[in-house]
Amino acid sequence: MGRPPRSGPALCAVMLLLSAHPLLAAEPWIVKDGEHVRFQYHEGQEAVVDRLLAAAPAVRDRQCRLISPCFDGRTTVQVAASEEEFLALQPYRSHIDWASGVAYEELGLIVLRVDQQILLTIEETFEHELSHVLLLNAVKMRPPRWFIEGIAILLADQDLVSRFEAVAAASVSDSTLRLADMDRGFPGAPKLRELAYAQSGLFVAYLDNRFGRQSLSELIIAMSYGMSIESAFPRITGLTLAAAEEQWRKTLSGFGWVLGLTSDWIVWLVATLLMVAAAVLVRVRMRRRKKRMNEPEEPDWEYRDGPG
């Protein structure tokens, strides 16, 4: 994929697309500008936008330490207060109703959804979608979907624990997805889609832990020069992508998967196991105590030398 537009034409395209929505034409946007981000929202969403606007510089700086060259243009972020508005804001009639945010890097556009039924916080969703805009503006060839989503999950640190559980459960039945299959498109079924996101996040976290954040950054730089990830990966890591995938899969069996975790994960895991062990111990003690309380008192035994 060639580099998307980086200047005025993209913004003009966004405004033309927006003007076509009758839902939006009836209520004018409130606009707040940051250095690299412009927020558009309607009345009632100011508190959310203020939080995102305040966090945006630090979020972008953190992401730009990994993603280079870093897109220097302005990204428009629209905040939808309902599913109806979220769908109406999506260009190209995308109609993505299951997500909490969507990004269109060629337009420099992010659409966020404020909805209590969405599990991720809007801050996490903003970080996730912003990473898509930055990454896809940095590279010449579009990376595989698992890499795009995995980098976004890594940068936003989105609920990796539940994603690990999904992958671990699938590995027991050997139903994990192959990277090559995900390259051709994420599954449409909700459960398989959840597994695809889980694998993407965990595999990229594994690469980050094993080869280092600098190696991931070098991969992105190589792709910014037009290399494919399959060509760049062995030059940077010394392994083919297929070999790295197989080694990662082996970590999912037994206790080997601990090698794929960061130190923070290990701390979390140990703490969780200790909490579970403590809860089980308390439950056993309470059960024994209740049993003793319900049993009749033992009689005093009379010891005799023999038959009476």
What order do the strands of the largest sheet run in, or round the barrel if closed? 1-2-3-5-4
Order of helices and strands: HHEEHEHEEHHHHHHHHH
**Approximately how much beta-strand content do the residues carry?**
5-15%
Helical coverage, percent range: 55-70%
Fill in the CATH topology of the largest domain. Glutaredoxin
> Please, what is the oligomeric state?
single chain
Q: What gap, in angstroms, lies between the N and C termini?
A: 102 Å
Mean pLDDT: 78
Q: What is the architecture of the largest domain at the second tier of CATH?
A: 3-Layer(aba) Sandwich
Number of helices: 13
Sheet with most strands: 5 strands, mixed
Class of the largest domain in CATH? Alpha Beta
Radius of gyration: 26 Å
Q: What gross morphology would you assign?
A: globular
Q: Quick one: how many beta strands? A: 5
Per CATH, the superfamily of the largest domain is: Collagenase ColT, N-terminal domain
